[in-house]
Write the C-alpha cells for this entry.
Amino acid sequence: MAERGTERAAAERVRWGVLATGSMAARFTSDLLDMPSDAEVVAVASRNEASAKAFADRFGIERAYGDWASLAADDGVDVVYVATPHSAHREAAGLCLEAGRPVLCEKAFTVNAREAGELVTLARERGTFLMEAMWMYCNPLIRRALDLVADGAIGDVRTVQADFGLAGPFPPSHRLRDPAQGGGALLDLGVYPVSFAQLFLGEPSDVTARAVLSDEGVDLQTGMLLSFGGGAQAVLHCSLTGATGVGGSVTGSQGRIDLPDGFFSPGRFVLHRPGRDPEVFHAQGPRDTLRHEAAEVMRCLRAGESESPLVPLDGTLAVMRTLDAVRDRIGVRYPGE
C-alpha cells in the first residue's frame, strides 16, 4: 500500500509537490493545472530558494522550499514529481521515499541500473508508490498499438525500429555534454527508443552498440542492435548531432505498425496488413501532454497501488540494464561508477 496521503487522495484532489524548477518541471506543472478536478500543485522545491519562489509565483503555488528535504517532509504533499537532471534522481527520489512520500521520477530513471535498483528496493521495502515518468507507456494511442500487437494483428513481432535525434549543436558547457550530469544522447534521448522496443519485446538477450563520443567522453550519436529470444531484433538510434524523423515501427510476421511522426507521443499510427487497405488510428485530444502519466499516478494512489501496471518497476529496471549494456559497449562511464 502507498503510505502517506493515499487516504486523503482517495476522497479529494491529489496534492502534488514538484522537485526542481526547470523546463520539464514547468511543463508538468502546466499540464497538472489543466486537470483542475483531479490535481493541485501545493509545493515546489529547489536547491535555490529564489528559483523555488519564482516558480511558485509563476504557477500560483502555495509553498516554496529552498531545499529538497523540506518538500520530502511536507505532510501536505501526497506525491512528489522529481524533475531534476537524471544524475540527481537517486538522491532526490530516495530522499522522498525515505520520508514515505510517493514519487513520480523523470526518465532516464537514474544514471545506471544499480541506482535504479536501490530506489526500487527502497520503495518496495516501505510499500511506497514509485513510478518512472515514461509518459509514452501511458499514451492511449501507444496502448492501442500494444493491444493490437497482443491480439495478434501483425503476427509475431520480428523487428522494432525507432530513432530520436536533435540537431544541436550543444556546446561543451551544456549539461548534455557533461559526464557529471549523465550527459550524452543515450540517457536523454536513447531511453525512448529502448523503452519503445522493450515495451513490445521485453528485455534483450544480447546488445550490440557503436557510438561517436565527444571530447568529454559522452555519446553524441549511438546506434544499437538489440537481439531477443526467438530471433526478434530492435534497430535503434539516438543523436545530439542531427534532427531525425523520430519515427518508429513494429514489424510482425503478418503486418506492420508505423508511427511516422513522433513514436513516443504519436498523433497517429498506421496498421499495414497484406491484402487490406492501411488502417489509420488517430489520437484523441492533444498528443504532447503529460496528463496521461499524471492520471495513472493518481489512479494508483487512489487504488492503494504501490506500482503502476502500465509502467512497472521491473520494466524500468530492465531498460536501465539495457542502457548500462549499451554504455559498456560504447565505452561511456560516469563519475563515481
